[in-house]
Inverse folding.
């Protein structure tokens, strides 16, 4: 997140003076054995990271020779790249960026921030092809479409909703007053009442926060507020008086 945001956090010295805040304007390329972004990561992470999974060899043979050539010639291509950028000018580059940005935005479900990142990748590859490689190969939107995160799927509130519905389904017996074990609440037709502390606990296990998602849950009509517009209901259910959250389930047969 710090790298992607391009700036450090402001800090104070022991003398309560503001430290210099360092900043940078870069895109970073990492390799890793595991996915860089976890499934339960917030949408702010998905907005800043393009995660590519490579399932086959990029170089069939001669990998060591290529690595040696790169090491022996490190820096030369960068100079040519900068010369080319200076030649065509930043106004021209920015116009190209805006064109790519609009194409991605109109032809995908990417968020604005992710569109920014994708446009940077496509433009950088275009400029590199023109100034260095000249091999007729370029990246286009179709080459990246499988790696674009749908803005409706990466929303934290939607992922948290799907997660808690599965948890409620798995623990459906805990919504019945069977006389033993932990009782989570009650189920009635197409909604359920779940103890707010249990809801927070279960969400926390997957690194979700109820306070973060409750507003959007209410806006999507998944969470029903009380008569005062609050997210919590003070009520009695299954003989237990407490504070509960009322959630709408998908249909009346959700717990059946």
């Amino acid at each position: 997140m710090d790298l992607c945001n391009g700036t450090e956090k402001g800090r104070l010295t022991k003398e309560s003076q503001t430290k210099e805040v360092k900043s940078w304007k870069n895109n970073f390329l990492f390799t890793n054995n595991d996915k860089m972004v976890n499934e339960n990561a917030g949408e702010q992470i998905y907005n800043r990271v393009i995660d590519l999974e490579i399932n086959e060899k990029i170089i069939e043979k001669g990998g060591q020779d290529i690595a040696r050539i790169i090491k022996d010639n490190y820096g030369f291509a960068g100079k040519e790249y900068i010369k080319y950028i200076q030649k065509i000018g930043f106004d021209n580059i920015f116009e190209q960026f805006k064109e790519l940005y609009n194409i991605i935005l109109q032809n995908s479900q990417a968020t604005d921030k992710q569109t920014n990142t994708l446009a940077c990748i496509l433009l950088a590859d275009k400029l590199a092809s023109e100034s260095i490689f000249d091999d007729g190969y370029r990246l286009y939107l179709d080459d990246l479409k499988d790696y674009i995160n749908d803005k409706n799927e990466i929303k934290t509130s939607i992922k948290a909703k799907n997660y808690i519905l599965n948890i409620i389904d798995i623990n459906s017996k805990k919504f019945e007053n069977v006389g033993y074990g932990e009782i989570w609440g009650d189920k009635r037709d197409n909604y359920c009442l779940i103890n707010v502390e249990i809801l927070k606990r279960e969400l926390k296990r997957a690194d979700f926060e109820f306070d973060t998602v409750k507003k959007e849950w209410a806006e999507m009509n998944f969470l029903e507020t009380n008569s005062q517009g609050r997210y919590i209901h003070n009520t009695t259910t299954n003989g237990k008086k407490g504070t509960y959250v009322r959630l709408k389930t998908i249909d009346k047969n959700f717990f059946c």
Q: What stands out?
A: Residues 96 and 203 are 43 Å apart (CA to CA). The chain has two domains: 2-147, 156-248. Confidence is low (pLDDT under 50) at residues 251-256.
